[in-house]
Amino acid sequence: MVAVVNPVQKRLTTQTAEIAPDTVTIRSLDWDRDRFDIEFGLQNGTTYNSFIIYGDKTALVDTSHEKFRDLYLDTLKGAVDPSTLDYLIISHTEPDHSGLVPDILALAPDITVVGSKVALQFLEGLTHTPFKQKIVKNGDTLDLGKGHELQFVMAPNLHWPDTIFTYDGGTQTLFTCDAFGMHFCSDATYDENLATIEADYRFYYECLMAPNARSVLSAMKRMADLGEIKQIATGHGPLLYHNVQELTRRYKEWSQAKTKAETTAAVFYVSDYGYSDRLSQAIARGITKTGVAVDMMDLRVADPQEVNELVSMASALVIAAPPSSGPMSAVARAAISTILAAVHDKQVVGLFESYGGDDEPVDPLLSRFKELNLTEAFPAIRVKDVPSEQIYQLCDEAGTDLGQLLSRDRKIKKVKAIDNELEKALGRISTGLYIITASKSEVNGAMLASWVSQASFQPLGFTVAVAKDRAIESLMQVGDRFVLNILAEDNYQALMKHFLKRFPPGADRFAGVKTRTAENGSPILADSLAYLECEVSSRMECSDHWIVYSTVNAGKVATPDAQTAVHHRKIGNYY
């Protein structure tokens, strides 16, 4: 039975539900949250899930975001006397799950905090107060009584370096925090409707887990040593019960595909310092779009041997500016010295500022890499204020540029391998010429498109093929809105030439182009023949493109007597 508790704010609520014998979830529902973490767009809000396990001893698994302080603590007190809590299990220390740890420690001064060694070190810096603690390693157990023996699984980098999973063999429930979650807010505690959530589930994976695909597979290998898993109690979104096997299978397949990439980029960041982790995730997201694998490593806890091995096998290095002073500085500097000693001249490198208030200057570090004959993959990213959406877009596009640089030779080789007669025949498929324009909050994008085709009458809809490494791809998720600008046969050259340009990361695609704003907020090109206002309904994955099906909400023809521009090709292995 589900009970909605204390709807103090219209769109900020909490919910409790019994999910297994002696096990209750407290879900903090953030209905209107539209940006999160690496600043990717959300269509459906998010949740922060916490859990109570009642045995002879009582354990609280994770807390909530500090914005829910009063709501969460009131709900918690309705479920248990906080002073009687025996254990607080920290899946990882990211603030949206550990934001209320100081409050719990104040209410339960005798509680024992359970977590990985790294997590407890982070918490000491967060709380600035001593607390009882228990460090757990992979395979360690904690018996709460009444059949609830907890087993811990080390799952570093999912998506923080200190992550652990917790398995309750008594209820066959696996508590995973971020892994297998999604940013999706609804009253449904579970994943009853797979079709409703699968787009958000995939997008969440691509943004947060794909850059750590090897870590995903390592964690799933450890999961296989546990007993049967009947449900996965995630930290965000609905809990997985109805589709556990299907959704874990997808994680495994997606991650296996990522790790089979021929090329790898290493991304180094400093957790819990400025915006280093969030900016690094945005860059990593851009890289993975291109089919290049990413390995992320936290300079704060990096093992020198692991750093050396990763640098030696990587084709590209992306490095966050570490702090120039303080306790993290010496460790981060030592890691960077290890990086410098292991690089070779066939690699490319990109640097970005962390906006931590005490960043090491990036220019001297970049000079040291250039002296070692490394090529700069993208201009150093300067962050002079709290990162805006444009900065996150710049990071995403910089990562995509780096990935395209690494994969360029491979793509050329594949193009040459296509049968000559086959490619000539395929090239005889003619298409129109269109410009897709999109705007979401502070971020704009545009793309020249030719693979467009009407797909339905009721509702009116069409498909467009979008390459996975296009910058605009992140603005064409399910629920996103955009404009399809249809070009005229006697007036398309200037627009086509403009949007075929290779724009540097973060550049304004519409500089020098006449536009006006559609009702859905996207730009309409003044020189287009006609336009359609559209909303993405679904996406189908192909090898190197997404087939995006969209419905049409409005449209207008500006020049009734003009004809649509037609695009004729001679070969079918590029546009």
Descriptive report:
By secondary structure, this protein is α/β, with parallel strands linked by helices. It is built from 14 helices and 31 strands. Strands 1-2-3-6-7-8-9-10 form an eight-stranded mixed β-sheet. The chain has a seven-stranded antiparallel β-sheet with strand order 23-22-26-29-30-25-24. The N and C termini lie far apart (55 Å). The model has no long low-confidence stretch (mean pLDDT 91).
Q: What topology emerges from the helices and strands here?
A:
Elements: E1 2-9, E2 12-20, E3 23-30, E4 35-36, E5 40-41, E6 46-54, E7 58-61, H1 69-79, E8 87-89, H2 95-98, H3 101-107, E9 112-115, H4 117-127, E10 132-135, E11 141-143, E12 149-154, E13 164-168, E14 173-177, H5 194-209, H6 213-223, E15 231-234, H7 244-259, E16 264-269, H8 276-288, E17 293-298, H9 304-313, E18 316-320, H10 327-342, E19 348-352, H11 362-371, E20 375-376, H12 389-417, H13 420-426, E21 431-432, E22 434-440, E23 443-449, E24 452-456, E25 461-467, E26 481-486, H14 493-500, E27 515-517, E28 523-525, E29 530-541, E30 545-557, E31 566-567
Parallel strand pairs: 7-8, 8-9, 9-10, 14-15, 16-17, 16-18, 18-19, 19-20
Antiparallel strand pairs: 1-2, 2-3, 3-6, 4-5, 6-7, 11-12, 12-13, 13-14, 21-31, 22-23, 22-26, 24-25, 25-30, 26-29, 27-28, 29-30
